[in-house]
Amino acid sequence: MALMITDECINCDVCEPECPNNAISQGAEIYEIDPNKCTECVGHYDEPQCQQVCPVDCIPLNPDRVESKDQLMDKFLKLTAQKS
C-alpha cells in the first residue's frame, strides 16, 4: 500500500529528503506522495522513513492503493532499474 499525507501536514519539510524514492514533493497546499514511486521504503529500509520523522503523524497508509509487500518489492525493483 502506498502512503499518503493528510491535511494535518504542517509543511515542516522533514519527510521529503528522507524518501529514498523521491516520491514526496511539495503540493499546492501540503506535501504529497506519488503512489507510483512510494514503496513504503520496501527495498531500502524496514520502516517507512517519512513516517518515522513526521512530527504530527500525518502519513497513514493510502486505502486507495492497496499493495502487498511483494508488489511493493516489484515496484522498488522497477524504480531502481530505471535509475541504472
UniProtKB/TrEMBL annotation:
Domain called 4Fe-4S ferredoxin-type: residue spans: 1-29, 31-64
> Keyword Transport on this protein?
yes
Q: Name one GO molecular function term.
A: 4 iron, 4 sulfur cluster binding
Q: Name one Pfam family in it.
A: Fer4_7
User: Which Gene3D superfamilies has this protein been placed in?
Assistant: 3.30.70.20
Looking at the keywords, is Repeat present?
Answer: yes
Report the protein name in the record: Ferredoxin
